[in-house]
Structures are given as C-alpha cells and as structure tokens.
Amino acid sequence: MLKMEWIFFLTTLCSVLFTFCHADTYPKAQNVSWNSVNFKTLLTWDPIPVNYSYTVEYSIVGQNRERNPHCIRTMRTECDLSNSLVDLKAKYSADVLSEPKYGETSDLVEFPHTSSDWFTPYTDTVIGRPDFKIEVSKDKKKITLYVEDPPTALFKKNEPKTIRDVFGDDLQYKVTFGKSASTGKKTKISASSEILLDGKDIDPGVSYCFNVQAYIPSRSPDKQLGESSKRQCSSSDKSFIEDFGVGAIAGFILLLILTVVIVIVTVVCCRRKTKANMGKERVPLRDV
Ligand SMILES: *[C@@H]1O[C@H](CO)[C@@H](O)[C@H](O)[C@H]1NC(C)=O
Ligand SMILES: *[C@@H]1O[C@H](CO)[C@@H](O)[C@H](O)[C@H]1NC(C)=O
C-alpha cells in the first residue's frame, strides 16, 4: 500500500517538474530534410517561428559541430549549406535548434533540437536535367549528342564547377532513344559527354528522339540516375526516295505524265470546240 503511494507521489512530482522545466520552451523543428540538386544543398524544416528563432549546426560524423553564419538565430526555415559541406564524400548530419530570437535571452540551459538524416553530397545530391545538342553526320549514318555537363553550386576560382569537374570518370550519361514515329525505346550508356550513335544503334536518315540523364554507377542503385532532359528529336531530313520508295516515285512520275497528257488533250479539244463555235457550226463533242 505504501509502495503504491510512493509511486503515485513520484509520478506526480516528475510530471510537475517536467511541466515546469518545459513551460518556457520553444517548439521543436519538424520535417527537417535535405534538398540537394547539383550540390546546391538546402536544409529545410517547419514551422515558421513566431517568437523564437532557429540555429543550424552541422558536423561530419564524430567531428566538431560547426555553424554557418547565415543560419544562426534565423527566422527562416531553410539554410543553404552548399559551400559549408566542404568534404563532398563525408557523411554529414545537421541539428536545427529552437533558440530565443536574435538579441533576446532565455533561461533555458539546453534548447530543443531536431536532427536530420545523414547526408553525403557526393552520393546524395540529385543531378539535374542536362541540356544537349544533336548533330547528324553528312552521310546521315551517325548522330552525335553533345551533352552540356550541368553546372553545380560549387566554385573553383570564381568559376562554377560542372558535374564533370566533380565526378570525373564516375560520371556517365544514359541516352534513351527511339524512332520519332514509333514507341520502341533503346538505351545507350556513354562514359563521355559526347555520345556517338552509329550503324549499330540507328538506321540512317531516320528521325530519332532522345532523352539524356546523368548516370553514376558508383552510387547506390536508387540514386544512380539524374533527372531526365527534355526530349529532343533529330530532324527528318530523309531524301525523297528514302521517304517514299522507288515504286512510289515511279507511280508519282506516271501520274504526273498522265495529268500533263490530260491537260494537253483537254486544251486541244477546247480550242477545236471554240473554233467550231466561232464557225457557227454545231459539232458534237468528240470523245478523247
Ligand atoms: C511536416 O510535413 C507534413 C507533410 O508534408 C505536413 O503535413 C506538416 O504540416 C509539416 N509540419 C509542419 C510543422 O509544418
Ligand atoms: C511564444 O509562442 C508560444 C507558442 O506560439 C506562446 O505560447 C507564447 O505565449 C509566446 N510567447 C511570447 C512571449 O510571445
């Protein structure tokens, strides 16, 4: 009996203390997540603060926490860490702390915080859609795609680095293509940003449509493919004969000759008829 009362007392004491300790606290950040495309890496969270602020701390696993000056006591709900995560292959985690507003103080010893998932720029950033140009060779047997390696949010000597600068030989491209007139699809992987399609891949002189996306085989399977480019097609500059076939051309020429003959005959007939009319002689129309 005494035992039960003790437990009740302790439980009550605990909950009173808990309420007291947390009476003046701030809401925890929610939905803390990484959003990263081409190494433009934002940490985002909810909700928008009303009478408090957020501070972001990030660290490589097992190392000291660091702060980005733009993300200390901020009223915003995102933090750009693109150029803070310097070691692209390291595993980072971040904490979002709910703190007093800038310039205000609090009695709290420890601020509420929420941790993010792990994030490794090199393996986790999404590769955005690339742009590319199509070139058809003069003999129409080869098509070359010139892919523009997308720029990243990282810099070297004030120049943005491209994804090729970052990934080097780890970067490949995957092309998905098919004849524009059909739904069939083929794929080709290219280690180079210049992708050559020849007799093994394409029929000469036919219009093909292409989608290109970055492909990084060293990544885990669900992160290997980047965003798909806009679809682009090579122009259908087939010669007339290739388009219609020799038989059709012969038929067309025959039809042309026939038309000309009919026109000539009609004209000749009409002239005769007119002459006849002028001669005021009614001559029945003769069949041709
Ligand atoms: C967290 O995300 C969920 C789903 O997107 C959303 O419904 C919820 O409102 C978010 N939380 C806050 C505090 O905004
Ligand atoms: C701060 O916001 C919380 C929750 O919105 C509210 O309960 C509290 O009264 C506010 N404090 C001040 C000083 O405005």
TrEMBL record:
Domain Interferon/interleukin receptor: residue ranges: 125-235
Membrane topology field: Single-pass type I membrane protein
GO CC list: plasma membrane
MF term (GO), any: cytokine receptor activity
Entries under InterPro entries matching the protein: FN3_dom, FN3_sf, Ig-like_fold, Interferon/interleukin_rcp_dom, Tissue_factor, Type-II_Cytokine-TF_Rcpt
Top-rank taxon, per record: Eukaryota
Nucleotide-binding in keyword set: no
Transmembrane stretches, start-end: 244-270
Gene3D superfamilies for the chain: Immunoglobulins
UniProt keyword annotations, A-Z: Blood coagulation, Disulfide bond, Glycoprotein, Hemostasis, Lipoprotein, Membrane, Palmitate, Signal, Transmembrane, Transmembrane helix
GO terms, biological process: blood coagulation; sprouting angiogenesis
Compartment(s): Membrane
Record-linked PANTHER family: INTERFERON/INTERLEUKIN RECEPTOR (PTHR20859), TISSUE FACTOR (PTHR20859:SF22)
Record family assignment: Belongs to the tissue factor family.
Protein name in UniProt: Tissue factor
